[in-house]
TrEMBL record:
GO biological process: photoreactive repair; UV protection
Pfam family, one: DNA_photolyase
Keyword check for Flavoprotein: yes
Cofactor(s) demanded: FAD
Name this polypeptide is given: Deoxyribodipyrimidine photo-lyase
GO MF assignments: deoxyribodipyrimidine photo-lyase activity; DNA binding
Function: Involved in repair of UV radiation-induced DNA damage. Catalyzes the light-dependent monomerization (300-600 nm) of cyclobutylpyrimidine dimers (CPDs), which are formed between adjacent bases on the same DNA strand upon exposure to ultraviolet radiation. Required for plant survival in the presence of UV-B light. Not involved in the repair of (6-4) photoproducts.
Enzyme class: lyase
Length: 490
């Protein structure tokens, strides 16, 4: 059921829980539980929360719950996220006079407790298709008082997931026309975020960001932070529109060709970390791209296809397919062909540890794994080859899928994302793909090999590029250790 709103389309909001009305019941504040969309600007969930607070003449606050090591996240991912949230905290409170509360532990406990403490009447959440978050929301619905309404706003997708399609879509071909039909309604400019009319009573709790970030970096040190990608909303807009190296302003022209060349990482938009953590809105990216389509129609169309159709197809899969990360989630033809070939003889069988340490006989695969370890981002073309070789080198499709998801979530800055799950499912289980010529191990799953890569790009150049990344990483680590040793001696 959709909740009515003047500022945003009714189809963007769902009622997860309707409060029971009671005579004489005081209307309390609005709380926005921020999870997936970690930004102030262009955030439909925040816009909705503030607007609902205005209508009821009550204050509004933003709450964020830090899940420790959510789905295997380490220093790389949590450091990036927390640095972005620190900027968001300052912007919310100083520019918009909206308090920000940070909690740690289980959101099933912390969010209902906060709602109860402040006497909130409305809890607004943003949307995620991942099962852990959905289960958490179900529990929160049970735990909050019956006098609390809960709204869920899809602030992540351009066309809200439930408006785009009411079922599991087979492929990009089947969802594309549905999304395109709805774009005129949903791809609109954002209204300005209004300051709250009623001030929050009391102060928000102090947050020691430095100590928190230090703790997270220490606990997750196994996968250190990356330095090529600065966190936060301002940095995200710089990557999209910056005058020096912005994607739409300086790099767009070569996108349709360069995005498939692993030797040209700058040919990609570089926006995926920001989109994953919600530090930039996909809708903002699409609006800006659409405004310059006349200059590079082919590049803009390719970008919008990835940004809207492919991303929203991934959300659709994870929302409507409960087994989005297992062989059970594959189409029947793919499950059958994979099981028919599950016991085919493999030339090599590697353990998870060998794969994680890039200890295979294939220098190209090793380079792709190390690019992810060093850089926090494997090139999109290599991700396909990487996952398909894991299928070829493990004891069966279940193990291949498990290992590819584990490595992706651990090392990719944008891991633990519907795009990541679907990328692994596409490569290993043929999801959103079709059957191809039958062959050993793969069955009818699309095949990729070293020779095919060699025809497409300079394989030796790519291996050398990753080796340089590793050497740079090593030098920086040694320099950091040296600085720390000096500090200890002084």
């Amino acid at each position: 059921m959709a909740a009515n709103s003047a500022a945003l389309q009714p189809g963007r909001v769902r009622i997860l829980k309707e409060a029971s009305k009671s005579a004489g019941q005081n209307v309390g504040p609005v709380v926005y539980w921020m999870f997936r969309d970690q930004r102030v600007r262009d955030n439909w969930a925040l816009i909705h929360a503030v607007e609902q607070a205005h209508k009821a003449n009550v204050p509004v606050a933003v709450a964020f719950n830090l899940f420790d090591q959510f789905l295997g996240a380490k220093a790389r991912q949590l450091g990036f996220m927390l640095r972005g949230l620190r900027q968001l905290h300052r912007d919310l409170e100083e520019t918009h006079q909206i308090p920000f509360f940070l909690f740690r532990g289980n959101a099933e406990d912390t969010i209902p407790n906060f709602v109860s403490e402040c006497g909130a009447s409305l809890l607004v959440t943003d949307f995620s298709p991942l099962r852990e978050v959905r289960k958490c929301k179900e529990e929160i619905c049970k735990r909050v008082s019956d006098f609390v309404t809960i709204h869920e706003v899809d602030a992540h997708n351009v066309v809200p997931l439930w408006a785009a399609s009411e079922k599991l879509e087979y492929s990009a071909r089947t969802i594309r026309s549905k999304i395109n039909k709805k774009l005129p309604e949903y791809l609109i400019e954002f209204p300005m975020l209004q300051p709250p009319v009623t001030k929050w009573v009391g102060t928000s709790r102090l947050i020691d960001w430095d100590s928190l970030i230090d703790e997270v970096l220490r606990k997750g040190a196994e996968v250190p932070e990356i330095d090529w990608c600065e966190p936060g909303e301002k940095a995200a807009m710089e990557v999209l529109m910056g005058s020096k190296n912005g994607f739409l302003t300086t790099r767009l022209k070569g996108y349709s060709l360069d995005r498939n060349n692993p030797l040209k990482p700058r040919g990609l938009s570089g926006l995926s970390p920001y989109l994953h953590f919600g530090q930039i809105s996909a809708q903002r990216c699409a609006l800006e791209a659409r405004s310059i389509r006349k200059l590079c129609p082919e590049a803009v169309d390719a970008f919008v296809e990835e940004l809207i159709v492919r991303r929203e197809l991934a959300d659709n899969f994870c929302f409507y397919q409960p087994h989005y990360d297992s062989l059970q989630g594959a189409w029947e033809w793919a499950r059958k062909t994979l099981m028919d070939h599950a016991f085919d003889k493999r030339e090599h069988i590697y353990t998870k540890e060998q794969l994680e340490k890039a200890q295979t006989a294939d220098p190209l695969w090793n380079a792709s794994q190390l690019e992810m370890v060093y850089y926090g981002k494997m090139h999109g073309f290599m991700r396909m080859y990487w996952a398909k070789k894991i299928l070829e080198w493990t004891r069966g499709p279940e193990e291949a899928l498990e290992i590819s998801i584990y490595l992706n979530n651990k090392y990719e800055i944008d891991g633990r994302d519907p795009n990541g799950y679907v990328g692994c499912m596409w490569s290993v289980c043929g999801v959103h793909d079709q059957g191809w010529k039958e062959r050993p191990i793969f069955g009818k799953i699309r095949y990729m090999n070293y020779a095919g890569c060699k025809r497409k790009f300079d394989v030796d150049g790519y291996i050398a590029y990753v080796k340089r990344l590793g050497e740079t990483k090593k030098r920086k680590a040694e320099s950091l250790l040296g600085r720390k040793a000096k500090e200890l001696c002084t």
